[in-house]
Amino acid sequence: MFSPVETTDLVQQIARQISDAIVSGRFKPAERLNELRLSQEFGTSRAPVREAARLLESQGLVVSSPRRGFFVRTLSAKDLDDIYELRIGLELHAADLAIQKIGDAELTALEAQIQNLYDLAEAGSIEERISADSSFHRMLCSFSGNDRLLKAFDDLATDMRAGIALIGTIYDDPYRMAETHVPILEALKKKDRQGLREALHFHIAAARDQIVPLFESLNKTP
Amino acid sequence: MFSPVETTDLVQQIARQISDAIVSGRFKPAERLNELRLSQEFGTSRAPVREAARLLESQGLVVSSPRRGFFVRTLSAKDLDDIYELRIGLELHAADLAIQKIGDAELTALEAQIQNLYDLAEAGSIEERISADSSFHRMLCSFSGNDRLLKAFDDLATDMRAGIALIGTIYDDPYRMAETHVPILEALKKKDRQGLREALHFHIAAARDQIVPLFESLNKTP
DNA sequence: CTATTGTCAATTGTCGACAATTGACAAAAT
DNA sequence: ATTTTGTCAATTGTCGACAATTGACAATAG
Q1: Residues 138-167 of B with CB under 8 A from A
Q2: Which residues form a coiled coil (chains A, B) (predicted)?
Q3: Rounded to two decimals, what is the model's pTM?
């Protein structure tokens, strides 16, 4: 009859806001999180801010140095490379699992997401296209039926977004971005396991090869 | 010349102790973490305990319910199944990466770990054998050179240990446990990618098929 | 006897305060 | 000029306290 009343949960709210600031690039890597100033901005005391920072710490977004405070974690080119490399392994496995369980409803959802990518290629911001791309891959992972795998993907996605935000903007060919998803869907429809693996591998490796060099060149001239 | 003086870092110490208690089964699933009692036992105030709990929260060992506190997370049979299923994907990918980079030093280290398993089969506790088994697989992951993958493995290993602790004890055939690692090493030596994948898959799936049913039967009679 | 309501101790969420430590800057020495 | 030492404001780590909420139990009504 009634829906639950909004559970405020200050810590979660603060963690979310800080996380967004980091992922969106508003907080730069290695930047110090000033507890006092943050707490004043949030209109709270320092305690919830510290707890939120701890939460982000084991999530990997923040590192703590005793007696020196919390800092936005730095992201090296190798980190990004590792992230995309792991993503290949994760999604290939997700694909293996999903190809057995997937039904028409799931295929339709993926198809709609690709259509969405085409639409955004016409009229959409880079952020929207990146987000839609991520959604497609997240969907694939969720169709594996493995919650733990999905969580691992989400962790990686967070860092990928942070990496992209750091670069500022990426060159993207929106139509190509949409197109390269089609072979993945086709292979899924045909239940062509090997073809699916190849299409996915190609797609993710291409993304990696576009992002990582950009990031490297960025850090060469500080 | 000198090594850094022990940085106390109360929060990390507390988090470690609570984590150990959960993983070792001394804290049962769904058990409430009483902040006041814990802080008294640690001889601190509640603040560091709460921060430690937050740290464990996004690590997945603890869940928080607003206004009700922190609880040890529950582990379902599906969770365990997902964990082992993901582990297969993770280690297969690690193997793919490691097979290219691995050298004699690494092979020797893995061999020593297998020898260790044989030794512990003679005279060693179940805990020691489980720990040694985990070390072997962790090594393999570390040889992938992908730090992020290694971290993902560590996260899974934590939960696997918790699952095993929950069951209390597992039936293990120590010699068989040691033996099934040999084909993995052999395939690595021969750089036989397909053989390695099969050996690993077989090995981990066997572990899953031993653990998960045990866990299911445990939860049927509460 | 069962179900609802009222009460209360136990516990959490949040706060402000204080001591300890750090990093920076200035002063002094080589 | 460079290095060392001394000083100090800024910041963190930790604490104890208080209000708000919860869950359980007792009292009451049907």
Answers
A1: 146-149, 151-152, 156
A2: none
A3: 0.94
